[in-house]
Specification:
The structure holds two protein chains of two kinds. By secondary structure, chain A is α/β, with parallel strands linked by helices. In chain A, 44% of the residues lie in helices and 14% in strands. Chain A contains twelve helices and eight strands. An eight-stranded parallel sheet of chain A has the order 1-2-3-4-5-6-7-8. In chain A, helix 6 links the parallel strand 3 and strand 4. Chain A is globular. By secondary structure, chain B is mostly helical. Chain B has two domains: 29 residues; 36 residues. Chain B has three helices and no strands. In chain B, helix 2 packs antiparallel against helix 3. Chain B is flat and about 50 Å long. The model of chain B has no long low-confidence stretch (mean pLDDT 96). Classes of the chains: A alpha/beta, B mainly alpha. The structure holds zinc ion. The site of zinc ion has 7 residues of chain A, from loops. The site of zinc ion (ZN) has 7 residues of chain A, from loops.
């Protein structure tokens, strides 16, 4: 069995080894499985789906976000919502991966409030689709008044339709202020329960504020601008891995769709038990997204 | 969710020393490079130097303190976003 613990990256070879040893393959699967709770697969190749499946990915959740450019009209978002709710699930299914999605207009495009309000108006017609988990990733980018207004309008939709909420926090020097503004704004929505909200892209200076208020926290493994595997594991150990998930946020930028299984490998090197690795990489995302009532694996 | 099993003790210095050493030398070389090019007046270089001073703190909260030192400390939303990206250090 020790071989099985070594690396997710060689999952197929290991499954072969274990099958030859007549071990039940279900044991291997339960040790290798992970969920990618935040991936922008519209920007990734079909090869990436295959590599993720080989590494043990069981499900990918795709928040609506910026596509690397500003869309010219709400029609662009209508097609984007069709893409993430109808087309990507089919692409993922070819590799045995379940695909789920979240809906919104992201804060980078929210400075144009007229466009943003039109896009918010599109959400109800998609919200009952089987793979839609909630409203996200909403949040702030440059911490402007318009971004905040559109953020609050999204939270209102989540409250009206009893949806889970996935929140993007700003980058780099803007993250601390944005996280505080977001947490404060959520306090104006008493029906939004903190345990039904995940605040993503936390780092060492924001994670305690998020978790101490009862929210879930997401750690993003993104080269340069967010978090490395070792820093993610430091934070997980510090907070005993409770109410935290980790994700690659793989998108159109320099990012790694295998960041989660690679971090699982570093956890092994750092003495984590297989059970605790599974808790972070699989059970925690299931616990949070299972609250949607639609997250069936 | 709260039944936390701590990891078994491993030699973290064995695991991380060479990587940390390499990053530190890269940082030193970066400061040399910008100094030779007379670009040390850039506010980002100053922000980096301020953050480096925090590495000598005694508490195991250095990563947090470094991140805080790069952060916008203000609390009110700005009127309008005039750019989409971030720089990595607060200009003040
Ligand atoms: Zn994202």
């Amino acid at each position: 069995m020790t071989v099985v613990f070594q690396t997710a990256a060689f999952a197929p070879a290991l499954i072969t080894i274990v099958n030859e040893c007549k071990q039940p393959s279900t044991i291997v699967k339960s040790l290798m499985n992970y969920i990618e709770p935040h991936g922008h697969m519209v920007s990734r190749t079909t090869d990436d789906y295959e590599r993720m499946a080989l590494a043990g990915c069981q499900a990918i959740c795709e928040p609506a976000f910026w596509a690397g450019f500003d869309r010219a009209s709400a029609d662009g978002f209508y097609d984007y919502f069709r893409q993430i709710t109808e087309y990507e699930p089919k692409r993922a299914a070819r590799f045995g991966i379940k695909h789920f999605s979240w809906l919104c207009i992201n804060p980078k495009e929210a400075e144009d409030t007229k466009l943003a309000e039109e896009v918010i108006g599109l959400i109800p017609q998609f919200i009952d689709k089987p793979g839609v988990l909630g409203i996200g990733e909403i949040g702030l980018n440059k911490n402007s008044r318009n971004e905040l207004r559109i953020f609050e309008q999204h939270v209102q939709v989540a409250q009206d339709y009893d949806q889970l909420v996935l929140i993007h926090t700003p980058h780099l020097e803007d993250k601390l202020k944005g996280t505080r503004l977001i947490v404060d704004a959520l306090k104006n929505f008493p029906k939004i329960k903190p345990e039904r909200v995940i605040i993503d892209h936390v780092e060492e200076h924001t994670i305690d504020h998020v978790l101490d208020q009862g929210f879930w926290a997401g750690i993003t493994l993104y080269p340069e601008s967010k978090c490395t595997p070792n820093r993610a594991i430091d934070m997980l150990e510090h907070r005993h891995a409770e109410r935290i998930w980790m994700n690659s946020a793989c998108d159109w930028g320099i990012s790694d769709p295998l960041a989660v299984p690679k971090t699982m490998q570093v956890m092994r090197q750092r003495g984590w038990t297989a059970e605790m690795i599974q808790r972070v990489a699989y059970e925690n995302p299931v616990a949070f997204m299972g609250q949607s009532g639609k997250f069936h694996l | 969710m709260s039944d936390w099993t701590p990891p078994s003790t491993v030699n973290l210095v064995d695991l991380g020393f060479m990587d940390a050493r390499s990053k530190l030398i890269d940082l030193a070389a970066f400061l040399d490079r910008v100094q030779r090019a007379n670009q040390t007046d850039d506010f980002r270089v100053q922000a980096l130097k301020n953050a480096i001073a925090l590495l000598s703190l005694d508490q195991p909260t250095r990563a947090k303190e470094v991140l805080l030192s790069f952060s916008d400390p203000s609390t009110e939303p700005i009127e309008k976003a005039t750019m989409q990206g971030a720089i990595g250090a607060y200009r003040g």
